[in-house]
Amino acid sequence: MKRHLISAADLSRDEALLILDTAEELARVSERSIKKLPTLRGRTVVNLFFEDSTRTRISFEAAAKRLSADVINFSAKGSSVSKGESLKDTALTLEAMGADAVVIRHSASGAPHRLATWVHGSVVNAGDGTHEHPTQALLDAFSMRRRLGALDGRKITIVGDVLHSRVARSNVLLLHTLGAEVTLVAPPTLLPVSVDTWPCAVSYDLDAVLPKSDAVMMLRVQKERMNAAYFPSEREYSRRYGLDRDRFAKMPDDAIVMHPGPMNRGMEIAAEVADSPRSTIVEQVANGVTIRMAVLYLLLGGDTA
Q1: Which backbone phi and psi does 279 adopt, to 5 degrees?
Q2: Domains identified in the chain, total number
Q3: Cα–Cα distance for residue pair 12/19, rounded to 1 Å
Q4: Is residue 206 part of a domain?
Q5: pTM above 0.85, yes or no
């Protein structure tokens, strides 16, 4: 593997499959009563989070600790990080501490790429602005593969606020690499201008796409990133793009429902759909630890372990 994981596009098909296969092996460790491995003993992993996060930060922390790494949680909330220099000063501090890996979440797209030019350790992108979130795409692919088998030729539908979703972009890139056929479904106002350059199809009609989908991933409507009216009302959005019981019934019997979380229950997804046996939402959280263990293991210890 390369030294950093900044974009899902950084991964070749073989590298992506290596991560998924390694995670499958490490999943067995998570099922044991003692969940620790000595692989990264003596290594230091820094969680550098400039944005709020629960699932991602805790899951990276759990992953590093299960591999016996030392973990430093650096919460930068309230810091002046909008200027590149302040991020550089933070990077130099981490370098002085001897960080072997820095896991960064930042509101500015491109921040992990900048950080990678300043530190000698590995940089893992845990979400940058509206750009990418590669480990989320990996855990989503891992969750799909466990339920559906190989992803070659599978039809994956991603629905909702694509414009503000780093998860959507990373999933489109990774799933295309793994041979899946991805369709984005969203109002025209919630699609990026550059979407026609993405390796996927686009539809505005959710009802037409659902019967052909092997997996449907609902995206959270990111109201906190919206400074304009992207749709008439929440009720109208839910009526046209929400996954309710009636739409759920149109999906094939073995199709699965996904959501990267946190959910707006009742808006983009009905509670009964989110809690159904065909939903992988809780599995995705558990699989996040396993995938992040695999990424850290391969970046920091895979060659020597």
Answers
A1: -90, 135
A2: 2
A3: 11
A4: yes
A5: yes
Residue 46 covered by a domain: yes
Which residue ranges are tagged as binding site for L-aspartate? 83, 166, 220
- 78: pLDDT confidence band, cut at 50, 70 and 90? low
Considering the domain architecture, whether residues 52 and 150 belong to the same structural domain is answered as no
Are 141 and 23 part of one and the same domain?
A: no
The pLDDT value recorded for residue 85 is 56
Please write the tens of the pLDDT for every residue from 28-45: 887 888 889 999 999 999
* 3 within some domain: no
Give the separation between CA 258 and CA 272, rounded to whole angstroms: 13
Q: Which of 2, 36, 41, 83 is catalytic?
A: 83
176 assigned to active site: no
Active site residue 133: yes
In the 3-class helix/strand/coil scheme, how is 167-227 assigned residue by residue?
Answer: HHHHHHHHHHHCCCEEEEECCHHHCCHHHHHCCCEEECCHHHHHHHCCEEEECCCCHHHCC
Distance CA(137)–CA(287), nearest Å, equals 11
Instruction: Report the CATH number that the domain containing residue 48 is assigned in CATH.
Output: 3.40.50.1370
Residues 269, 145 within the same domain: yes
- Which residues carry a binding-site annotation? 55-56, 83, 105, 133, 136, 166, 220, 261-262
Task: Tell me which residue range forms the domain holding 175.
Answer: 134-280
